[in-house]
Design brief:
This protein is α+β, with helices and mostly antiparallel strands. It has 19 helices and 30 strands. Strands 19-20-21-26-16-15-14-13-30 form a nine-stranded antiparallel β-sheet, with no helix packed on it. A five-stranded antiparallel β-sheet has the order 5-6-7-8-9, with helices on one face. Helix 11 packs antiparallel against helix 12. 54% of the residues are buried. The C terminus is likely disordered.
Length: 696
């Protein structure tokens, strides 16, 4: 860290007390604009005067009439919220007590202390802070408000106010785990502000209750600004803090600081939109889950501005649209969502019954607000999209697509996508992550994934855990768990903690032919070894060829072990065959993976290994299921060269066999038999053309 960052972090030890005292309990004359009272402020809030309106009764009636199935699903979730039944991430469902203890984790029977938030060390606690933070984000309150708007049933509004009152009683500003970090305050402020607007004409929203809630939101907003994430922490957390600040400022203009907050928040979001959504539309954090979360926050603020009658800054909408263009191009019409990097399943604003946000749900919401044609084609229409669709839109020309064609390269984010005949292949040629800590990136440089007919075949194993299972976290972000090469059992990049990398592998693309299906790239992550080596990977996936060839080389000095990994989706089975592995689904062949090396190869496979934590697949945080990971290992003096042939199993086609790899000078020759003929690919290692893709 720089000296400035160290000083900034040290200041956080004492400043939270100052922040808590600055607006919590501030006199009315200081908190409200001149001549404003809480009674008048509530009247204006109910009438929607001078502010955007997102959740209202007339729109709710239209949505309920047109989409009864979606509303019914939301009502089922609202009933669970009323009953205090919650399920977060991959943890089991639990029933909260009455009244709810907002600082109790029933999974671990752990009670978080009611002390100054800055004094709580969430990293060493006996419970998972992600679970208690999720509870305290209060993202069920907008669902209860919607349920009341859809049905008029006061039980939903009554529950919302009971929960909100008890939360305020138990969580004074700045005390407890709920206030640990401005980011949590910002995300929670979005949900509480939106829910309060949905409940604005309910008789239980008295001036006294309104004042109490808005004072908490004002303190949250000030905390979001004073303690916003900076330096190496200025990732999606900063966007969440600025979005929380903007939401409070826009929905409560009677607050004296609101105009200044709005200017700061929108200016900051415009700047972060250009930093965190790269020019090619990919996410700077190298984690698709966080790209969706970040873009959702930007979209929300743009929606609020437009609902107020203002056109959002063009650069803000442009960032949302180029992100949508990129994501829509990656998922196409039927492909699964990419799984690289971390994903904590975070909602910007939860307006539907979906258990977690998805790429296609996000694209549907983007299409509703911006009219993006790619997003509309690839997206799904959730309740969030229904609410956004009701916001009056100004006619604007569609944003130009950043990518074109079924196959493409995103040069800033470093993702190559190759498509043909129901097959999607991706290769990661990008940086590790965003900023110095690269908190949510995985050590997966040069990873190759494969999906067929809309199903993952070879892929990334998922994040698995943040805090609940540290051993899962360590393995799932390591190189060994990803579809790339591990040297001497070490990751390409050096971890310094569960959300920190101290040394980043850097990728250089040497040659690229998207139309021909060829990528040649290398990374320098293993130059740190005592006997330094470079990992270079060639990918050959011609559009009309059912076989994909991957050739890996580690060049340099010394004796090394080189290992390939091919993590398979859990619905697939793998069986050893001569030269490799046969991958099947329900007894039907899917692919054949053959492996050969110049120095000879030892085949390996694992599934659900508790000792090494290899052979697992995770679709949710804190949950994993057994899945096969297969590959090969070769040992010897550098250079070491291994070839992997991945052949699609097609009915009536002869299986590939007799894979062999040899070296003569600068030439690598890979040969195999297929369809009654001998095929060969020759690689010239001396080629030096290409460029480096965005080092970090």
């Amino acid at each position: 860290m720089s000296v400035s960052e160290v000083c900034w972090r040290a200041g956080h030890v004492v400043e939270p007390v100052i922040t808590r005292r600055s607006l919590d309990g501030a006199p009315e004359a200081r908190l409200l604009i001149p001549s404003m009272t809480w009674e008048r402020a509530l009247r204006d809030f109910r009438d929607g005067v001078g502010r955007p309106v997102l959740l209202d009764r007339s729109r709710a009636r239209q949505i309920a009439a047109r989409h009864p199935d979606q509303v019914a699903a939301l009502l089922r979730m609202a009933e669970q919220a009323r009953a205090g039944v919650v399920a977060y991430f991959g943890y089991p469902e639990v029933r909260l007590g009455v009244p709810i203890d907002w600082n109790h984790d029933p999974l671990r029977d752990f009670h978080w202390p009611s002390v100054d938030a800055a004094r709580i060390d969430h990293r060493s606690a006996a419970a998972d802070p992600k679970w208690i933070w999720e509870l305290n984000r209060l993202q069920h309150l907008p669902l209860l408000a919607e349920a009341w708007l859809f049905t008029g049933d006061d039980r939903y509004a009554d529950s919302a106010f009971v929960h909100l009152d008890s939360w305020l009683d138990q969580n004074p500003v700045g005390r407890g785990i709920a206030w640990r970090g401005a980011f949590e305050a910002g995300v929670r402020a979005v949900s509480v502000a939106a829910a309060l607007q949905g409940l604005r004409d309910h008789p239980l929203l008295t001036p006294a209750r309104f004042e109490r809630v808005v004072r908490m939101l004002a303190a949250s907003a000030e905390r979001c600004w004073r303690h916003r994430s900076r330096f190496s922490s200025a990732n999606n957390h900063l966007v969440g803090e600025l979005a929380g600040l903007a939401t409070v400022a826009l929905l409560f203009p009677e607050l004296a600081p609101s105009s200044g907050w709005a200017r700061r928040a929108i200016s900051g979001l415009v700047a972060e939109a250009s930093r965190q959504i790269l020019p090619d539309g990919s996410g700077a954090e190298q984690a698709v889950g966080y790209q969706v979360f970040t873009a959702d926050l930007l979209l929300l603020v743009a929606a609020l501005l437009r609902a107020r009658g203002d056109e959002p800054p063009a650069s803000l909408l442009a960032a949302v649209d180029r992100s949508a263009d990129y994501l829509a191009a990656v998922v196409g019409d039927a492909d699964p969502a990419p799984r690289y990097g971390d994903d904590d399943e975070g909602f910007a604003l939860r307006l539907g019954p979906e258990p977690r946000p998805t790429v296609r749900d996000h694209l549907g919401a983007v299409a509703a607000l911006t009219g993006n044609p790619r997003a509309r084609r690839a997206g799904t229409e959730t309740l969030a999209a229904r609410w956004f669709d009701a916001i009056p839109a100004r006619s604007t020309a569609p944003a130009p697509a950043v990518t074109s064609g079924p196959s493409f390269v995103a040069p800033d984010g470093g993702l190559v996508v190759l498509r043909s005949a129901g097959r999607r292949i991706t290769m990661d040629v990008g940086p590790l992550g965003y900023l110095a800590i690269a908190a949510h990136g995985h050590a997966d440089a040069l990873a190759v994934t494969l999906s067929l007919e809309g199903h993952d075949v070879i892929g990334h194993p998922g994040a698995a855990s943040y805090y609940g299972h540290p051993e899962w976290r360590s393995v799932h972000r390591s190189t060994r768990a990803h579809p790339t090469v591990t040297v001497d059992g070490q990751s390409q990049s050096v971890p310094g903690g569960p959300f920190l990398w101290t040394r980043h592998a850097r990728v250089r693309v040497r040659s690229l032919d998207v139309d021909g299906g060829m990528v040649d790239a290398e990374h320098d992550g293993y130059l740190r070894l005592a006997a330094p080596v470079t990992h270079r990977r060639w990918l050959f996936a011609p559009p009309a060829d059912p076989a994909v060839l991957v050739v890996d080389e580690i060049s340099g000095s010394g004796l090394h072990e080189m290992r390939t990994s091919w993590p398979l989706h859990p619905e697939l089975d793998a069986a050893g065959i001569p030269e490799g592995h046969l991958v099947t689904r329900g007894g039907t062949g899917v692919i054949r993976i053959l492996t050969a090396a110049v120095h000879g190869v030892t085949l390996a496979q694992a599934r659900g290994d508790e000792a090494t934590h290899l052979g697992w697949w995770s679709d949710r945080l804190e949950r994993r299921v057994p899945s096969w990971v297969v590959g090969g290992t070769t040992r010897g003096a550098a250079p070491l060269i291994m070839a992997t042939l991945i052949q699609r199993q097609e009915r009536g086609a002869d299986p590939a066999a007799d894979l062999a790899v040899s070296v003569a000078g600068d030439l690598i020759a890979v040969a195999w038999s297929s369809g009654g003929r001998r095929r060969e690919r020759v690689i010239d290692r001396s080629r030096q053309s290409g460029r480096r893709v965005q080092d970090s």
